[in-house]
Amino acid sequence: MYFPGTQTEVSYPHGVTAEAASVIAVSELEHGRFAILTDRTPFHPIDPRWPDQGPDQGIIVAEGLPFEVLDCVIGATDGADLFIGKDIPVRRGTAGWVFVVAHILDEPLVVGSSVDMVCDAERRHGLSAGHTACHVAALALNRVLTPRWNKEIPVDGLGSPDFDQEALDTSRIGINSAVDVYRLGKSLRKKGFNADDLYPELLTLAAEANDLLASWVEAAAPVTLEIEGPGVTDKRMWVCELPQGTQRIPCGGTHLGSLGQYEKIEISFSYDEPIGKLTMRTAATVLVA
Ligand SMILES: [Zn+2]
């Protein structure tokens, strides 16, 4: 089997959930599973390098028969072999390698055949709502933590010290929700963050952040993805124009087009003080169209 020399074209950044495609390679995996590569896909893959937004679910329809997509993962190939997820041995941009979207099925499909790729659009919408809310919540968090910085650090697009950038450990996007874990350790203190007496202040900070989030939802702030190219690893920037400024960060996920699509976005905190682990849970309610 020869694998493709060009990366998979992806349509999910444009909000697409269904698309016709051609099967260009099939690779047998362990446990009776197969990786299906297509020339293009609407399926958002999980990226083990930063697994914030999980894979889309859905089906691939081949010759009228639906095949369930069991998983969808970033892969990479040097033309001779295909590596999937954590097994990818090279960084993006390595000469001679291309990155692809691997759709994991328990049946092989015929190379060269035309298929219809159909994602679960409701799940996608929930993940997009969770992802947009996650990035906006981080901006509210940065803003309410501003008084706790006593040294200059890089600021976000709204001019707030970028706590999220400095302290984020893991981020997981759920349906209309997200969970972000921050590390408040020695290195953050050295950078000038004062974590003293944070615990008793958390309810107040959450209330302040939620007031900000409510004002941004009220303002129906527009959200766009700036897309440099059609390939899965082409750079994409998440841009949100808020009243206090415009945030622009690299993001490989999917999003809603406006904060006006929410009824509300709210955060809450839990704090494990002895190990310095601050967890922010974001919950969004989306307006019914
Ligand atoms: Zn993102």
From TrEMBL:
InterPro entries: Thr/Ala-tRNA-synth_IIc_edit
Protein origin, superkingdom: Bacteria
Keyword terms: Hydrolase
GO terms of molecular function: hydrolase activity; nucleotide binding
Name of this chain's protein: Metal-dependent hydrolase
